[in-house]
Design brief:
Chain A: One of its GO terms (biological process) is protein retention in ER lumen. The complex is a heterodimer of chains A (212) and B (10). With 212 residues, chain A is mostly helical. In chain A, 71% of the residues lie in helices and 2% in strands. Chain A is built from eight helices and two strands. Chain A has helices at residues 3-26, 34-47, 58-81, 96-108, 115-129, 132-141, 146-173, 178-200; strands at 143-144, 208-209. In chain A, strands 1-2 form a two-stranded antiparallel sheet. In chain A, α1 (3-26) packs parallel to α3 (58-81) and α1 (3-26) runs antiparallel to α7. Chain A is globular. Chain B has no helix or strand. Classes of the chains: A mainly alpha (212), B little secondary structure (10). At the A-B interface, α1 and α3 of A face loops of B.
Chain lengths: 212, 10
């Protein structure tokens, strides 16, 4: 465990909590893509099946349980508790265009052709693109609430910090997981355009709105 | 092709 990995995990947790609190406090999930949230919940469920097979550390297991519970709670809030506020008309990204290719790819390119490993690979690939419905929704409505942009910032920062963690681990531990690295790079790149808007607009106190 | 026995990251 190095500082970048820890900061990445914390940043990921902050993102998840920000979103949960935003929905809970405002009693509304307006502007949030339920589809992205379903994808993230699927990512956690398929990746953390190893909770039942191996024990790495108390930290590892507790974080996995927190991520899974929070992501499922978020999906519940969007589709059940605050369904009336869910902006489904703007959440029109075709998720099958992500899930089908990602599913196929995880069968073709993986570390080991076993059910657990294929599901892990699926979760890694799916996570890299799971934010697309949310970004698509923002591009459709042309704006995002400031709190939603903070959520996206921490979510993007998390994978960026993991990239630094992987460079660190390569040099100091000889650790190298090509699947995670390539997917993590794709994931981080998808946030770049958003990062630019976040720094140039949101951090200067302006609302994130896109030119028509 | 590096094979990791288990995944220790989140």
């Amino acid at each position: 465990m190095n500082i970048f990995r820890l900061a990445g995990d914390v940043s990921h947790l902050v993102a998840i909590i920000i979103l949960l609190l935003k929905i809970w406090k405002t009693r509304s999930c307006a502007g949030i893509s339920g589809k992205s949230q379903i994808l993230f919940a699927s990512v956690f469920v398929t990746r953390y099946l190893d909770l039942f097979t191996i024990f790495i550390s108390l930290y590892n297991s507790s974080m996995k349980i927190i991520y899974i519970s929070c992501s499922i709670a978020t999906v519940y809030l969007v589709y059940f508790k605050f369904k009336a506020t869910y902006d489904g008309n703007h959440d029109t990204f075709r998720v099958e265009f992500l899930v089908v290719p990602v599913g196929g790819l995880s069968f073709l390119v993986n570390h080991d052709f076993s059910p657990m490993e294929i599901l892990w690979t699926f979760s890694i690939y799916l996570e890299s693109v799971a934010i697309l419905p949310q970004l698509f929704m923002i591009s459709k409505t042309g704006e995002a609430e400031t709190i939603t942009t903070h959520y996206l910032f921490f979510l993007g920062l998390y994978r960026g910090l993991y990239l630094i963690n992987w460079i660190w681990r390569y040099y100091f531990e000889g650790f190298f997981d090509l699947i995670a690295i390539v997917a993590g790079l794709v994931q981080t790149v998808l946030y770049c355009d958003f990062f630019y808007l976040y720094v140039t607009k949101v951090l200067k106190g302006k609302k994130l709105s896109l030119p028509a | 092709w590096p094979f990791t026995q288990y995944h220790d990251e989140l």
